[in-house]
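Q: Got one fold?
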Amino acid sequence: MAGTGLFAEILDGEHVYKYYADGEWKKSTSGKTVAIINPTTRKTQYKVQACSQEEVNKVMDLAKTAQKSWAKTPLWKRAELLHKAAAILKEHKAPIAECLVKEIAKPAKDSVTEVVRSGDLVSYTAEEGVRILGEGKFLVSDSFPGNERTKYCLTSKIPLGVVLAIPPFNYPVNLAVSKIAPALIAGNSIVLKPPTQGAVSALHLVHCFHLAGFPKGLINCVTGKGSEIGDFLTMHPGVNCISFTGGDTGIAISKKAGMIPLQMELGGKDACIVLEDADLDLVAANIIKGGFSYSGQRCTAVKVVLVMESVADSLVEKVKAKVAKLTVGPPEDDCDITPVVSESSANYIEGLVKDAKEKGATFCQEYKREGNLIWPLLLDNVRPDMRIAWEEPFGPVLPVLRINSVEEGIHHCNASNFGLQGCVFTKDINKAMLISDAMETGTVQINSAPARGPDHFPFQGIKDSGIGSQGITNSINMMTKVKTTVINLPTPSYTMG
């Protein structure tokens, strides 16, 4: 059971978790906690500390102090500690995966995969960091017109300071380490504000870093209500960089944050464009994987299928047959479709479904919901006047729009205010490349569903889908700044006889 043995010190009584600051597990002086509701049982599963603004101030001071000495720690030592944390994380995958099952209703097998993948990400980051940060640049002045060779310029990468990391509920471990590991290898300190659903998994993750022996105050994890500490954190003068993954909140953060680097990955309405020559069995398999894995609660999920009319009937039949085979039920049973994260999320999805029904969409399955559990639903003959054509359901409901030309598909994709990922299915590589160039999205997948990984690939959105680029290498570069030292040589006239 999570919380026993190795993780006992992070608990304060049964199912009540402490927060982490200055290398210690602490109870909030507020005396308050925040309940975490199990999406499957809809009952309180865990409680976490409701940290106060005063505690946030203390954490920021600790992080700032710890960062100064961490920046002087040799790069190989930083890497060594990250490798150690990765090993501990992978060794204790079972209790962390169990938290993911109970907190966010992630199927058991996917939960284990997330933890292992996160350990791999930490190790890769350590190695990549040593490569990137171990190299500087050397410039000479006479490469620019009008200059003699009297100046030598040395550049290196130095840390930004305190990085505020805010991961989302759907990947609270993986998207936490994708921020923590690059920040640490680059010499920054971390303040982690996990999502409420996913907070306990994140606290277990932080404990793995604690056990690895990182310096006190370098890594901190504050939990609590967004209304109490959310804006206070993102607008805090002690923060030197914000890395955020989530929804609309990110746009508000970017407007309020000061003059600091921002790394934001927000929502998506990832379009899947299907041409007449596409391998429809491949398309159907990818639509199921892309649209329905983790009940569609992924920013890179297929969110709208734009299929050429001539092959639409055939494709819809193939997808329908596969939807019928999806298992629906609790995450403990490794079902394909599990409850969505909250009742408000389920209500929002239902609103989109009702709107589509009123406006005449074809329901390929009967709409069925029990609590937070929504059965998978394919909606055919969706038109642009339906909300589901544009809004992101973040659930197992997928709209199909029939198109009469490739241009129509590209136009629909580009008319969205989102631009995270997209995909195109065709056997014609020339067409695929032309469509990819025309799609206003950060990434286009050819003949595969959208996906964030592998984790070292660049990952970015345009428009309302984000700022900056992720992926291990890009994150390390983003969390550093260039420092230049110029050596001025004596002028040649009086040095050489």
